[in-house]
From TrEMBL:
UniProt superkingdom: Bacteria
Organism: Flavobacterium chungnamense
This protein's name: Thioesterase
Length: 145
């Protein structure tokens, strides 16, 4: 698979007083897409609960290029920008594009896997997390950490 792409649907609640998508909605779309990708690759919330781990973000940044508006076709894609060999730390990149393939925004998140019992970085990284992260397509400027 070369990338994970999904059309997103902008709701009235996603708009700000200027009638374009509010900044925090972009982050919500990114978070939802990440969860859907993990589920699609076999790492469900249930598995993470059973194995006592989950994703944690250290940084989340959005660069806005063009307005996103209601009734506009918008697609989100997700790729791995960076990852440690053991899968413990990673960077994911979400791109929002319109139906003309114009870049609307880019979200970059830096994260890791947390042991939800110890409330610390999971060590070692659960094998399913390593396997799943290696299935997500790499960005054009991918770097091994």
């Amino acid at each position: 698979m070369s990338t994970f792409i999904k059309e997103i649907h902008i709701r009235w609640a996603d708009l700000d007083p200027n009638f374009h998508v509010r900044h925090s909605a972009y982050y919500d779309f990114g978070a939802q897409h990440r969860v859907e990708i993990l589920e699609q690759l076999g790492m469900s919330m249930r598995i993470m609960q059973e194995q006592h781990f989950g994703p944690i973000l250290f940084r989340e940044e959005c660069v806005f290029r063009k307005e996103m508006r209601m009734n506009q076709k918008v697609f989100i894609s997700t790729k791995v920008g960076k990852i440690k060999e053991d899968g413990s730390r990673w960077t994911l990149i979400h791109e929002f594009k319109n139906d003309k393939d114009e870049l609307l925004a880019t979200i970059t998140v830096d994260g890791a896997w947390m042991d939800t019992k110890l409330r610390k970085i999971a060590n070692p990284t659960p094998q399913i997390a390593v396997d799943v992260m290696n299935l997500i397509p790499k960005s054009d400027n991918f770097a091994q950490l």
